[in-house]
Task: structure prediction
Amino acid sequence: MIYQSTRNNDEKVNSAKAVVKGIADDGGLFMLSDFSAIKFDYKSVLNLSSMETAEKILGALLDDFSEEEMHEMVEKAYRGRFETDELTPVVKVGDNFVLELFRGPTSAFKDVALSMLPRLMTKAREKLGVQKDTVILTATSGDTGKAALEGFHDVDGIRIIVFYPDGGVSAVQKAQMVTQEGNNVKVCAVKGNFDDAQTGVKNAFADFKKMNYDAVDFSSANSINIGRLAPQVVYYFTAYASLVKSGEINVGDKINFVVPTGNFGDILAGYFAKCMGLPVDKLICASNANNVLTDFINTGLYDKRREFYKTVSPSMDILVSSNLERLLYLLSDGDAGKVAGYMNDLNTKGCYKVDDAILNKLKETFVAAYCDDTVTLETIKEVYEKDGYLCDTHTAVAFRAALDGKYQNKTVVLSTASPYKFPVAVLSALGVTPDDNEFRVMEQINDLTGVAIPKNLSGLESKKVLHSDVIEKNELTDYVLKKVAEEKW
Ligand SMILES: *Cc1c(COP(=O)(O)O)cnc(C)c1O
Result:
């Protein structure tokens, strides 16, 4: 499989190289120009276990890894590390279905991908004969950070630095990150919002390139890495298989997915699944008040020049959705020049408008919806009271879109976090005043609903804080250079 930069079709790499590099030299993202080279029959995985399905799909997308290698990596990534071997169970809630992606080691959907990525990277480094250390730089809006730390800590030959927006993550999320153990991890707060942190990381990559810095290799665990995206394709297939097994649909029936969206990685993986032949009708892109994607899908104009809102669904507080670039590349039939132009407009003018051909193709599959915080909280209450299902704030944004859309096809809502990751908002939604201490709030929710607190969250409060660095947003490059030069982490 040949991956190309979305901004330049001459930059071609195989899948192992794409995983090791993370981002292309020209700032583009590695992508297939179309899916025609992948011959995949979704019917062949309908009766497999989740882990077997993962082996097949990852093998199809990342074909430099042998079947045996993929088997070994999938086992290491998932076996015994999730609450169930099903990994991502589907639950019927009212007329809809919830795909629970948060049953992993940090109670966030990012575990699905970040359990796998370190294994892919280690194996890919081995294949390419990489001797130098790789340093992973990751910006997080909350959940990626912990999931990445959990995936990468104590992996040989790799070090990881996580940057999070100071004051921009929940107390639980912060506690998860700053208590991270491991001899190859750093966690640092950046004064600014998530976009500042993400831009800082992107600029750092560019700076290191400019100075020909070669003491270590830099890479990314953000969803710009194709090795992050590929594992997310799997659960679209297992969700479909689950609906077939429970008799809710017949093989061949089309279904919809509603995806609470931030950086556009999760929903793009759904589009990959569709391109690989899964019978998907609509992909509904659910946003919070930062509804830049809603406007884009409706009009073709992507305009980041707008107010940034801090919402109760902070992992979706994003104005520049990096993975959209990959969709543009696919929808323009691999026209890297065109994509490079749009990205340049975004950088210089803060906006771009896609042509009608792209917009029409976009609308064939994608539907947009958004709701504000008030409606998000109302939805948590409504779903809990009507259907007895407690969902988190991000899932609620998607649930609203499923309820309002009144879709004919069976519709699956992707649930991206445990309600216990955002306890204050969730308890307030249920009409109870939360305690000042977020950890007490978890107990309040447990008392009220009986929903079990995930083990990884209940022990957090008593863990020792190991990371307290805070930097300005323009200090990121210097911070990384300083840390990389330190012998002992
Ligand atoms: C990351 C995240 C999202 C958004 O996923 P993207 O792939 O960035 O679109 C939604 N919900 C939660 C809880 C997340 O952590």
Q: What stands out?
A: The two ends are 37 Å apart (CA to CA).
